[in-house]
Amino acid sequence: MKLTTSWLADWSLSHRDASKFGPSSRWSNKDMDPVLPQDRTWTTWDYIAYWVSDATNAAVWQLASSMLAVGLSWRQALPAIAVGNIIIASVMVLNGTIGARLHIAFPVLNRSSFGFWLSYFSVISRVVLAMFWFGIQTFTGSECVYQMLKAIWPSTANIPNHLPESSHITTVGMMCYFLYWAIQFPLMFVSPQNIRYLFTVKGIIVPFAWLSILIWSFVKIPAKISLEPLHANLSGSALSWAWLSALNSALGIYATLSVNIPDFTRYAKDEKAQFVQLFIIPVAFTFIGFCGIAVTSAGEVLYGEILWDPLRLIDKWDNRAAAFFASFSFILATLGTNISANSLSAANDMTALFPNFIDIKRGQVICAIIGGWVLCPWEILASAPGFLSFMSGYTVFLGPFAGIMVVDFWLVHKGKVDVPAMYDPRGRYRYWNGVNWRAAVALLSSITPTLPGLINDINPKIFVGKASLLFNIAWLYGFFSASAVYLFFSKAFPAQETFLADVILGDDVALNTPTESSTQNAGDEKEKVNVLFASHVD
User: Which residues cross the membrane (predicted)?
Assistant: First the structure.
């Protein structure tokens, strides 16, 4: 027991990384504290680069193309993408403004609406989801590496395989996977304040490369020839439900970030810096969706098959230089997306779960190891289609999460919240034993009706009748139903202790905290913070 205690003590974060807000290291550390003014470095241009960077990834490219497979025309698919991204951008700005105004991370903010213990449900869900998607995106990146190496050395395609078929990966596949993971790993140590430079580089190089691919497709096959035959083969209610399902897919692709966007907007120089998301998200994502449709359509005319995966299209090219640069752009695209949407998100959530032992850098390293190797993403992709359906259907949870966050801050409390109390489990956001039952009721009432559709999506052999239709609009239904239920119960049975005359920010506590590292000073400061917490509780 003594040895175990000593080992844990060796891994615990030093007092320099301790929280200046939490009454104990159980609830926060320096990375979870409100961002200090000198660390608020993200400008409007950084958010433009961030979203142009995130829009340029293979999943968005394939999204519109896959809509054609269910019977929509390209003229119907693009509006679905545009409308979906206008909706998700609106939620991004609403939740993003909270982060920019309060300068706190999603796991901390979540405590004010869900309660300290119920907030763990969304946080743990996010950690698991982010780790799995980190591995899957890393595998996608490894396929980009393969195409790039093959463009340089065509003999790469002839490297003999020494791994058994049951491993679901080849020798060259494992080599490319390790190379991509090794390229990605050093970026785990870059702080969120500085990672914006990666998004800027990606936001310049990748769109230029993909625009070049789009121009190539129009030069090879004029749009009149490639796009004109793409007419809808659905009508009536079938067309309506297919369009709504496409809209839900457009919403779902970045539904996760609509929840944890405060993890990034808390670094904004001011609230207005992140307002540009309302414009740049629909424009960037709709344009990339169009690229996917146009290039895929041209590829079908050229090669006689539908190549939804852009890497399969690149594999057909004879021009090795073009294949190299296109593959490099996809590597950079996957790299930026994997860090922004997965490793950083998982790290923030793990920091909230184990603040005494995990900071953002350690969290990213853990995500890279567990998500990249322990979970064996090549095995998941090869043998677990039902599990992947569940991962994709996770929007049934994300819509309600986002709705409750928006309603709680903007409609229930009208922006008047207590930031220091979000670090104190005994404070005003304790609710009932750490659970805001209003949020629990809203979650249950909005998620339950969509579960039959999710079950059918995981296993189509389980027939659920028309109950599966609600799953086609899971995010929209979850967002609005959870919002309505939460607002009703919050107004009918208000948690009086959470209502304030004005917002209480964390800047005063953070800026007045002494920087001396002595134990006595640290203890004195902790006592001051505890007194401050007590004064905030009605």
Answer: 77-102, 114-136, 169-190, 197-218, 238-257, 278-303, 323-344, 365-388, 394-413, 434-455, 467-489
End-to-end CA distance of the chain: 42
pLDDT exceeds 80 at position 1: no
- Range with lowest mean pLDDT among 91-95, 114-118, 307-311, 366-370: 307-311
Reported as a single tens digit per residue, the pLDDT across 425-449 is 999 999 999 999 999 999 999 999 9
DSSP 219-269: HHS-HHHHTTT------HHHHHHHHHHHHHHHHHTTHHHHHHTHHHHTTBS
**Residue 168: inside a domain, yes or no?**
no
Q: Is 392 among the domain residues?
A: yes
Please name the residue that has the structure tokens 């979540």: 110
User: pLDDT band for position 506 (50/70/90)?
Assistant: confident
Q: Is the entire prediction scored with pTM above 0.85?
A: yes
| Domain region containing 392 | 384-506
Please tell me the number of Cα atoms within 13 Å of 243 on its side-chain side: 19
Q: Decide: 214 and 291 in contact? Cβ < 8 Å.
A: yes
Structural domain contains residue 484: yes
CB atoms within 10 A of CB 4: 8
DSSP at 535: H
Q: What is the tens place of the pLDDT at every residue in 62-102?
A: 787 778 777 788 888 899 999 999 999 999 999 999 999 99
Look up residue 127 and give its two tokens: 């950690």
Q: Of 208, 210, 132, 146, give the one whose Cα is nearest residue 177.
A: 146
Distance CA 268, CA 508 (A): 18
Q: Are 103 and 34 in contact (CB under 8 A)?
A: yes
Enumerate residues 6+ apart whose C-beta is below 8 A from 50.
Answer: 196, 199, 203, 264, 340
- Residue 116 vs residue 459, higher pLDDT: 116
CA distances from 187 to 37, 459, 500 (A): 24, 38, 41
**Residue 118 burial by CB count (10 A; 0-12/13-18/19+): exposed, middle or buried?**
buried
Q: Which residue has the higher pLDDT, 21 or 482?
A: 482
Instruction: Find the largest Cα–Cα distance for the chain.
Output: 76
Residues linked to residue 268 through DSSP beta bridges, in sequence order: 42
Q: Is position 229 within any domain? A: no
Amino acid at 420: P
Residue 179 region by backbone torsions, left for phi larger than 0, else alpha for psi between -120 and 50, else beta = alpha
| Number of domains, the chain | 1
pLDDT band at 159 (very low <50, low <70, confident <90, very high): very high
Which H, E and C letters describe 429-476, residue by residue? CCCECCECHHHHHHHHHHHHHHHHHHHHHHCCCCCCCCHHHHHCCHHH
For 332, list phi and psi in degrees, rounded to 5.
-65, -40
Question: d(Cα 302, Cα 296) in Å, to the nearest integer?
Answer: 10
